[in-house]
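Before drawing any conclusions, I looked closely at one protein, both as residues and as discrete backbone shape codes, quoted below without any editing:
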Amino acid sequence: MDKYVNLIKLSVGTESVESLEDWHRTKVAQTKDGLPRHVTRMWPKREAEILSGGSIYWVIKGVIQCRQKILRMDEVFGSDGIRRCAIVLDPELHRTQSALKRPFQGWRYLKSEDAPPDLPKGREQDDIIPDDLNRALAEIGVL
């Protein structure tokens, strides 16, 4: 049994894995050392389990499509002075098998055994399936 836990998060406003990659290349989405980050209001209580090998799984347009390894968690303060958690990520996005996910607020824990597997090596560069077809295939359990 794996001794780590993952996070799952809606990537609001993201149209595709490529647009998530584009966002992560912007300065506002990066730490001072240039790594992509996601700033959240709540600090995960299971930080040690996450940092033992966890990833963040991104839900794009209602479908889990990719993940990023979580490297660390940095304390940051907003302009309002409130302490927040910057989840610092490996820049490499790993495409996963598609899995439908209903909308939810914030982030959630995702057990490693419940996470969709990465696409096999060599399939990452396959032609991208259009979102509506991707969703339909995931609904019937093909992807």
Remarks:
- The longest helix spans residues 131-139.
- The helical segments are 17-24, 47-50, 131-139.
- The first strand starts at residue 5 and ends at 10.
- Strands lie at 5-10, 37-40, 55-60, 63-77, 83-89, 94-100, 107-111.
